[in-house]
From TrEMBL:
Keywords: ATP-binding, Nucleotide-binding, Transport. CDD domains: ABC_Mj1267_LivG_branched (cd03219). It comes from the Bacteria. PROSITE patterns: ABC_TRANSPORTER_1 (PS00211), ABC_TRANSPORTER_2 (PS50893). GO terms for cellular component: plasma membrane. Pfam families: ABC_tran, BCA_ABC_TP_C. This is Amino acid/amide ABC transporter ATP-binding protein 1, HAAT family. One of its GO terms (molecular function) is ATP binding. Residues 6-252 form the ABC transporter domain. Involved in beta-(1-->2)glucan export. Transmembrane domains (TMD) form a pore in the inner membrane and the ATP-binding domain (NBD) is responsible for energy generation. Coiled coil: none annotated. Belongs to the ABC transporter superfamily.
């Protein structure tokens, strides 16, 4: 039996009287792009928080390579191969795209003596880190903007820098929370190609996104949440035609 990269078993999260997640179960096989959709407030971000260690479930298990990780802090999970982007951009606008990515890189970093004595090793480490950041920016299609201030980049390119930052820890599982939000049509098309290419780089993707065209064209499988519960799972075209899904979205529009 092949152990999935990620498995959720009856994951629940309550906030006081609010059941943000109720017994959500599904798995994410290695090498896939898996989508998570649902109307506003259905629990998608809560689930991303629980998987990435930003939050812990009230009940249930989150397994990475078959081992429980619920409650493990985000920085530990990052070392174990789980990385994410957030709904709201978290770059430092006064730093260049390259510097923003460099900040997210793991060691090798300089030691106190390297810094104090400005040993040649320090310069070499800095050059290596910069080269690695540029390589990551190239992977997401904006290598040419490595020296541009993050604050001067277009919205779509800032989102790409965020993805490059998330790739800096060499994740096996990348959680993308609404990466297309605020993007133009053209930016969405290139984001789609970027996401579709991630499995070939060894990165499995769990994607939360409201852009249905993007989801339909990039996901191998989609899971649908409504009011914290899983209401449908399947191939994009199956999910799109599912009456429960249509009803959940129409209901949300009426609200
Ligand atoms: N920290 C919190 N404290 C209290 N309630 C919360 C908290 N976080 C989320 N909730 C509630 O949990 C439910 C699910 O919220 P969540 O943000 O996960 O939904 P979502 O599907 O990501 O929504 P959106 O598409 O609008 O981002 C909502 O009712 C929300 O109000």
């Amino acid at each position: 039996m092949v152990i999935p990269l990620l498995e959720l078993k009856d994951v629940s999260r309550r906030f006081g009287g609010v059941a943000a997640l109720s017994d959500v179960s599904f798995s994410v096989p290695a090498g896939a792009v898996i989508g998570l959709i649902g109307p506003n407030g259905s629990g998608k971000t809560t689930l991303m928080n629980v998987i990435s260690g930003v939050d812990a479930p009230t009940k249930g298990a989150v397994l990475l390579d078959g081992l429980p990780i619920q409650g493990v802090p985000a920085n530990t999970l990052a070392r174990r191969g789980v990385s994410r982007t957030f709904q709201h951009i978290r770059l430092i606008p006064e730093l260049t795209a390259g510097q923003n990515v460099t900040l997210a890189l793991h060691a090798p970093s300089a030691g106190p003596f390297d810094i104090l004595l400005r040993l040649p090793r320090l310069r070499r480490i800095e050059l290596d880190r910069h080269a690695r950041a540029v390589e990551l920016l190239r992977k997401v299609g904006i290598g040419q903007h490595a020296s541009t201030l993050a604050g001067d980049l277009s919205y779509g390119d800032r989102r790409r820098v965020e993805i490059a930052r998330a790739l800096a820890s060499e994740p096996r599982l990348l959680l993308l929370d609404e990466p297309a939000a605020g993007m133009t049509h053209g930016e969405r098309t290139s984001l789609r190609d970027l996401i579709a290419g991630l499995p070939a780089l060894g990165v499995t993707v769990l994607l939360v996104e409201h852009d249905m065209d993007l989801m339909m064209s990039v996901c191998d499988e989609i899971h649908v949440l409504n009011q914290g519960s899983s209401i449908a799972s399947g191939k994009p075209e199956e999910v799109r035609a599912n009456p429960r899904v249509i009803e959940a979205y129409l209901g949300a529009e009426d609200a």
